[in-house]
Amino acid sequence: MRTPSTPGLGPPAVFVGRSQEVRRLGEMLRRVHTGVVYGLPGAGKSALVAAVAARHRGPVVHRRVLPGDTLDTVVDDVRRLLREAPVAQALSDASRLDDLVREMEAHRALCVLDDLHVLGTPERAVLLEGLGGRLRRGALLATSRESVPRHATSPDRFELRLDGLPEEAARLLWRQLGTLYGEREGFEAAWGRSRGLPFLLRRAHAGDTGGDEPVRAALRALPDDERRLAAVLALSEVPLTASTLQDVLPGSDADEVLRRLGARLLVETDARGRHSVHDLVREALVSLLGPDEASAAHATLLEVLEREPLPAVVRVRAVCRHLQALGRHEARAAFVVAQGEALVRHGAADELLCLLDSLPAALSTPQVRLTHARARVRLLDLRRAYPELLALRASLEAPDAAPGNEALREGVGAVLVRVALFSLEPEACERTLEAMPVPSSAEVFLQQLLALTALRFFQGRLDESLAMLDGAAAAAGGDRRVLGWCAYARALMLWIEGRDSELAEPLARCVSLLEDAPLDSRGPLVAAMSAGILSRLGRFTEAEAALASARERLGQLGAPRLALELDCIAAWVRGELGQRRAALSALRETEGRAERAGYLFVRLLCRVGSGRMLLELGRRAEGQALLDAVEAEVRARGVLGLLKAVQVARTLDVPGPKDAPVTVEPREVRPGIAARQRALAAWGAARQGDSMRATGLLAALEPMALGADFALERALGHLARAALHRHAGRAKEAEEALEHAARTAAEGEVDPELIPELFRAGSSTPAVDAGAMASAADAVVLDAKRHELRALGRVVSLERRALPRRLLYALARQPGRTLSKEDCVRAMWNADYDPRLHDNSLRVHVWTSSRRPPSSSPEAPPAAPTARTGAAAADPDPGSSPWGSHRATGSRNGLASRTRSRLPTATHCGRRARPPGVPVTSPSRRTRRSQNRSSWPGARKGRRGRGP
């Protein structure tokens, strides 16, 4: 960010008698960060704060409060001055104050507000307390003609009442003025009249020797050219340069006139060479001007402001004020409409609304009404923008409507279609699309196409929407923009629909095709949407980068609608990360903002997300009620395309006893989904008496289910242990596990009836045959802490056997599942599978790892590994610890993973069976030596030409 300059802020050339105040005020600002200097007009308040600001080491911004200013205009102007660039559109005073506080704190900036007394008492309190009271690194310094009341709860601030100079300091000021402008007598009389006020002392030194109002007397005595120039400066609320003022007095020497006015101390010159007048001079001169003089000055200012380098918002504000003073309301209306886009782009949509509302009712033309509605849409006030647009469309379609308004109808239709979609009004959207004229450009056609596909999706006609997008892409002729936005629309609809497997391709297409799109509101929208999809696919690093990119571009645009959409998607991302409580809080806050704005599409998305988070947190009654309400509203509004999102959210509820068993997806990386799958699968396995699978899943769940967000998963784990204890006949341990489940659920605010309901459902499930439950004494134990394999009293150390160890751990992490060659190679060597490099070694290690561990009985015949019982992480005694130990158990017939003949695995290797893909011919001598070196201790070696 560029460091703002301090235009017009600097002490006068002669500044005496205030050194103590400057030092004291500077010291207090470093401690309290908020100060107010108040006193009579002419006491030198502005000069004092300018001297303090000159010593500030950080950026300084200066804003004089003018009559007619409001809190939002003052704060937004300070934001623009601090950034020296357009700012984001703020939707409330709280949000604009938050943004200003962040900027001032980040850059240690000092904000100087002159004439704070112009604002009302509530606005003054907001600035001093809501802004100044929150500063810790930045600072706020204000001047006022009166003190600002304080309350018991007001933050600390430093106040300085500034009176006239003491006599000694006044004499010093008189002498220094004499050095600059020539010696002059009469100090005693001036001292008696001025009471030490620096402004009046300067006036007296300039020649005002009598009268109760010396300023008015001096102004009455001005010649015509000086009076005309002074009138222009008095009616201009912005300082003007000398080159601009040359046009005020054509044919005359404006520099000489300015010099004479400066000698009389009626005109001030700031540090940048710009000219203005003191407030006391302005007030006196405005009261003396006749109507013709004032009109001439306003007309002159309209001409000279075109050449004055002013910020866009300041220029529009000034031109409108002069046009209003001249009564040229039609010209003012046309000017506001023409400058509407510039004001919106600079974050001044609310000021645009104020300017439009100030127009006479007779000038409420269709163009003015459309600009007004667009400003409301920009401010995310869709509830009031929608009826305005409907009324405007009706007036344009009326029989007595003026002909030749096709462009205006097209503009109204484009805005109305978007607002109808946001407000979930499909009938109004379809009627508007049907009534719109033939698109005048390819851009308008693309927007109508995207609106129509969105409408079909909302109506529940997804296949038709996708077909329309395919047709548009086929007819695009290689147009990257059309192809990119078609891919974006497809990805967005599939994401809402929950069709995760189809998301990757359209997402990659839209990002690659639109990466060079111009900086507008759609660019950040693509980044935000991609963040939501990437998090759904488990690519969280990319999702966070996309969110950061969207927020960065949003800061340059300041689009409140996009900010709302981005906050909604960011909350969904947090939910995918397993941050359920934080996501629920963010979704509810965003839902409230969307409700107030009338943005019902985002509101429903937030409600669906909140319902899902409630179900994941175990607050199923509240979650189901919320989703029922959403479903009812979706059906009532006819936006059936959102029903699938509700259905997908319901799948996160705990399934009932008659539901299909939960499948554990080993590639799932979303923490909440992965933990829920393992907890439910462990609970289901424990109900069926499958202790091997249940204990393995519980051990895998342990590092996942941490924190308050996963209380339900931990409670399900305790329920699973209770079921295992019950099957084993350990009633006391089962009761303790149930108590743990109830306590954990209560701590996590899980519905109190959920755990008893699940326990009753589990108690009614018939147990499997006792022979199906493996005994811990007969189990093969893979200890990941000590890197040991134990079975039947024998221990095999894996400490120095890195490759077999990695393979066994990979099998144990995915009980009951098949590992492909690619997965085995990735687990063992952390590389991509290459048959030339890995096939031979992989077969050796698969054969070695799948052999039965040595029996304690030499006479016991070797048994083939089973394909029925998978390798599983487990604890032989489920009640020994809350979450088991870092061990893995397999069946007594060997460590195995479920096999299928179509995949090369480590589990289909019996005594005389060959692994899939191994030729029938005998292995080479080198292979046999490798196999012998890699075999377990105690295994027979040197068996030529035979499989394991």
Notes on the structure:
This protein is mainly α. It is 56% helix and 5% strand. The chain has 42 helices and 13 strands. Strands 2-3-4-1-5 form a five-stranded parallel sheet, sandwiched between helices. The chain has a five-stranded antiparallel sheet with strand order 11-10-9-13-12. The two termini are 70 Å apart. The relative contact order is 0.04. The model is unreliable at 1-8, 767-778 and 854-948 (pLDDT under 50).
Describe how the helices and strands are arranged.
Blueprint: H1 19-32, E1 34-39, H2 45-53, E2 60-64, H3 71-83, H4 93-107, E3 110-114, H5 121-131, E4 139-144, E5 158-162, H6 167-181, H7 187-194, H8 198-205, H9 214-220, H10 224-235, E6 240-241, H11 242-245, H12 254-263, E7 268-269, E8 274-276, H13 279-288, H14 291-304, H15 312-326, H16 329-338, H17 340-345, H18 349-357, H19 366-378, H20 382-397, H21 406-422, H22 426-435, H23 442-458, H24 462-474, H25 480-497, H26 504-514, H27 522-536, H28 540-557, H29 560-576, H30 580-597, H31 600-616, H32 620-637, H33 643-650, H34 671-687, H35 691-701, H36 711-727, H37 731-747, H38 754-763, E9 780-783, E10 788-791, E11 794-797, H39 802-813, H40 821-829, H41 835-850, E12 872-873, E13 887-890, H42 925-934
Parallel strand pairs: 1-4, 1-5, 2-3, 3-4
Antiparallel strand pairs: 6-8, 7-8, 9-10, 9-13, 10-11, 12-13
Helix pairs in contact: 1-2, 3-4, 6-8, 7-8, 9-13, 10-12, 10-13, 10-14, 14-15, 15-16, 18-19, 19-20, 19-21, 20-21, 21-22, 21-23, 22-23, 23-24, 23-25, 24-25, 25-26, 25-27, 26-27, 27-28, 27-29, 28-29, 29-30, 29-31, 30-31, 31-32, 31-33, 32-33, 34-35, 34-36, 35-36, 36-37, 36-38, 39-40, 39-41, 41-42
